[in-house]
Amino acid sequence: MLEEKVREALLGPCGVHTGDVVLAAVSGGADSVALLHALYGMAKAGEIRLEAAHFEHGIRGGESLDDARFVRALCDTLQIPLHEGSADVPALARAWKNGLEDAARQARYAFLQDCAANGGIKAVALAHHMQDQAETLLLHAARGSAGRGLCAMQARSGLYVRPMLGVNRSEVLAYLDERGLSWREDSTNASLEPARNRVRHTVMPSLRSVNPRVEEALCRLAGMARRDEAYFDEALKSLCLPAPIGVPYGLCMPLKPLRPLHPALLSRALYGFLVEAGVKNLSYECLERLENTVRMGGTCSLTGGFTAHAGWTHLHVVSEGFSPETSFEIPLQEALAGRTLPLGGCLRHVPGEYEGLGDGIRRQALRTDALSGAVVRYRRPGDRFWPLGAAGAQKFKQTMIDCRLDRPFRDLVPLIADKDRILWAIGLRVSQEAAVLKDGRGAEYLAFSGRLPWL
Length: 455
Known about the structure:
By secondary structure, the chain is an alpha+beta fold. It is about 40% helix and about 20% strand. It has helices at about 1-10, 30-45, 60-80, 90-95, 100-120, 130-140, 170-180, 195-210, 215-240, 265-275, 285-295, 330-335, 395-400, and strands spanning about 20-25, 50-55, 80-85, 125, 155, 160, 245, 250-255, 300, 305-310, 315-320, 330, 345-350, 365, 375, 385, 395, 415-420, 420-425, 430, 445-450. Strands 12, 15, 16, 17, 18, 19 and 20 form a 7-stranded mixed beta sheet that branches. A 6-stranded mixed beta sheet has the order 3-2-1-4-6-5, sandwiched between helices. It has a 5-stranded antiparallel beta sheet with strand order 7-8-11-10-9, with helices on one face. Helix 3 (about 60-80) links the parallel strand 2 and strand 3. It is elongated.
């Protein structure tokens, strides 16, 4: 029964095709030994090609080394190619400044990815089963996960497949007992320090007193959550929302199509946006703060040092490490010779008859005499600007406010300036001091090519 469940899952929701190379991650514990034997049967039948991988974490001393020897002997007996790796995980945890469990997971997954990349492997099979799935759902719920967290583990997540999610732990033990198969017991599984172990040894037994088949019930809930998330994903696709725009400080996207969305769709659209921006460890509270910011405007903090800002036109996610470009400055003629600006785009001359005197946004005729000492740079404190048609000069910050330019965009505006006087704020407006007002004589015709994300 276990073998048939693994086969159906592997060739079904796990997305593995006949003839693919599958790498089984084998710790030596009961679950991974059962998985290896089930996959071995498929390999003998010619349905897949099978390899194995074992990673020694350097945590449990001689016990851990014995696990490695056990897996090596098992693979030798079955004549399965074995990839072996090791690391000093306690040292890595100190260097990475995270917990031992997290460091072990990162190091192990990095090893598995290397094995797959170097061996043409199509899938890495992990031995997570029904009890693991139920525990994952509870952990996500306890940590305040958004609705997507109730999906728990997927049958396939990129390279990784989990063909035993429909298998109960009791089925694993019965399968091993029937075949007289031995396995290794990890002594740390009895520790109540890891959160998962506390759920396994204290929470799950209490829940079984309410429902003896609680694992099946929780896995059914995860399945319904995955079904609902698939529906919402399709609903979002049908809306054809604008794609997020990559900018030097992070990511942005227009606000207008977001604000009318039902909260169920908005939260999922924002989740995808944050994931693409690189924000990790998202919780319901984080998404709720961002939803309120989208509706009301303003700024909110996110996890990992990111900040979200909802301006007049766009939603922005700003990374902690971004700093505005204030030191860049080159003569205008050097920029016109083809030099690319630090934040992207370049300036060039265009023919005098090119679409009249320009639009002040991407094309503009400027008085030659006003450009004699001009440079190209980004904004700085004290900049002054006299907008075309205005009564006089003002702080450039006021011009950006008048143009309803979102705050994160303000450091991206390319400027043609003479000292603290801005002659053309590219993408916004041209200055009265440099604009050509009549027939275009004594003018230079300039155009900017490059992305201006606020347009």
